[in-house]
Amino acid sequence: MKKVNFMKINLIIQMIILALGQKSEVDMWTLKNLSHNQRIYVPLDNVDLEQSQRLTLMLKDLIGGVKIGKEFFTKFGPEGVTKIRNLGMPIFLDLKFHDIPNTVAGAIRSAISLEPRIVNVHALGGRDMLLASRDAIDNEINKLGCKPPLLFGVTVLTSMDNSDLLETGIPGSVLEQVKRLTLLCVESGLDGVVCSANEIETVREVGGPNFKIITPGIRPAWFERGDQKRIVTPGEAIKRGGDFLVIGRPITQSKDPADSLRRIISEIEGELG
Q: Has residue 96 been placed in a domain?
């Protein structure tokens, strides 16, 4: 007798329920009245598609969206992204494009067909690459008549510190580099940057109140640091002015991701009062 895959059946049932009762999305192009939950993006680092789908359904309506990075995209490609998007979850397509301007512009145009909420590029790609990215989005949405994804520039990875920058030939501090790259992104028309919470105040000074900030390297007080060198708690990141928080392992490595998320929200509320 063939063994019944109850986990797969449960996944199918949840997808049918979702299709029958879609809720209207929160408009994150404007950041007004966002709850703490809606500021959180959870990375789908698991390379099992069914597990990623289950996690997405489990967290749907509890978070702002999911982040899909290189590991997931390399294994499952655009089809995998579409399967997650069809579950009704906003997507931050975290592919950090970094190449010559024409190549990055082409990649951005292809990415827009996947309807991500957020896309990003490495700010170190330079002014011409950033401008080409901006133009690619503006031209493509005019053709398709869809909402543009938010375009973010990655400044300095949260796994790097001053000594790491120096080894790559970049003198000065992380803060100085983030400030330079933020100004470049502002001048190139990007919507915001990705930086650690330690640089939020500087980014806000350079970019102004409407410039958006994504903050990775977030760890609740009860979770280990891991390989992140520039981290803060979720509440502190929001207090400093972060708009979106990327919180991964404390949720994805938990036996009960929804409960861990509730603990994080409780911690945020405790810190912010």
A: yes
What's the per-residue H, E or C state across 182-209? HHHHHHCCCCEEECCHHHHHHHHHHHCC
Whether the predicted pLDDT of 89 surpasses 70: yes
Count: domains in the chain: 1
Backbone angles phi, psi at 96, to 5 degrees: 45, 60
Dist. CA 65–CA 265, nearest whole Å: 15
This prediction has a pTM of: 0.86
CATH number at residue 236: 3.20.20.70
Residue 141 lies in a domain: yes
Among 72, 35, 29, smallest CA distance to 264 is for: 35
Q: Which band of pLDDT confidence, cut at 50, 70 and 90, is reported for residue 228?
A: low
- Provide the annotated active-site residues: 96
More confident residue, 181 or 25: 181
Q: Per the domain annotation, does 16 fall within a domain?
A: no
